[in-house]
Amino acid sequence: DDIYVTDEHYRAEAPLLDVHIPAIKQIRARSGGGSVTVADPSIWARRAKFVHFTDQSLGDILGSEGIYCLSANNDRLSGWEAIHSALYAKRLHVFESCTNLIEELASGVGSSAKVNELDGACSDHALDALRYGLMHLGGPRTAKKTGTPPPNSGMALLNEMKSRRILRERFSWN
Q1: What is the pLDDT of residues 36-67, one digit of tens each?
Q2: Considering only CA atoms, which of 1, 81, 76 is closest in space to residue 40?
Q3: Pairs from 96-104 (Cβ < 8 Å, separation ≥ 24)
Q4: Which of 2, 3, 62, 102 has the least C-beta neighbours within 10 A?
Q5: Is 140 helix (H, G, I), strand (E, B) or coil?
Q6: Strand 3-5 relative to strand 92-94: parallel, antiparallel, unpaired?
Q7: What is the CA radius of gyration of the chain?
Q8: Is 107:161 a contact under the CB 8 Å cutoff?
Q9: Is the C-alpha dihedral spanning 145, 147, 149, 152 positive or negative?
Q10: Distance of CA 39 to the CA centre of its chain
Q11: CB within 8 A of 60, min separation 6: which ones?
């Protein structure tokens, strides 16, 4: 099945109640309410970095606002493989409105220290969200660890994608 990434919300260090929750609700309303929110498992940790003056987790606060999240499969290696598989099979369609995801796909650089990881200096929030979504939709469940990224691995593909020309060949632009 084809996968369509139609929208994104991307804003660092903004207030949860004033910025993120209304934006998530708007995206869900535009999708007809049929969207699923898959989130990093860390949002259920108490006393998270961005939760002040409460004993609730980010997940609790989102839930109290009617935004119920599923805990993402945080297996990074399998997640990169899921991205690679979707790109290679030309099943992943990213709308041009998803500028942060497109930029991160184009600028992601593999880590020299960790196999199948991005360099720590690279922004990867949109890529993490894509990984979570693809794993939720049935990405690979297991992955073999190797000493170097195989030629068809997700990291090898991201390392290859250095120009918009390559991205435009791989994606369906809507």
Answers
A1: 788 998 888 876 555 556 778 888 889 999 99
A2: 76
A3: 96/173, 96/174, 97/6, 97/7, 97/8, 98/5, 98/6, 98/7, 98/8, 98/126, 99/8, 100/8, 100/10, 100/125, 100/126, 101/5, 101/8, 101/126, 101/127, 101/129, 101/130, 102/167
A4: 2
A5: coil
A6: parallel
A7: 17
A8: no
A9: negative
A10: 9
A11: 44
Specify the pTM: 0.72
pLDDT value for 166: 43
Taken as a whole, the chain contains a residue count of 174
In the DSSP assignment, the letter for residue 4 is E
CA 89 to chain centre: 18
Task: Show contacts of 140-147: CB within 8 Å, 24+ apart.
Answer: 140/78, 140/81, 140/82, 140/85, 141/78, 142/78, 143/75, 143/77, 143/78, 143/81, 145/77, 145/115, 146/115, 147/115
Position 30: which residue type? R
DSSP character for 42? G
Q: What is the pLDDT of residue 162?
A: 39
* Cα angle for residues 108, 110, 113 (degrees, 5° grid): 145
Give, in degrees to the nearest 5, the angle at Cα 156 between 121 and 91.
Answer: 105
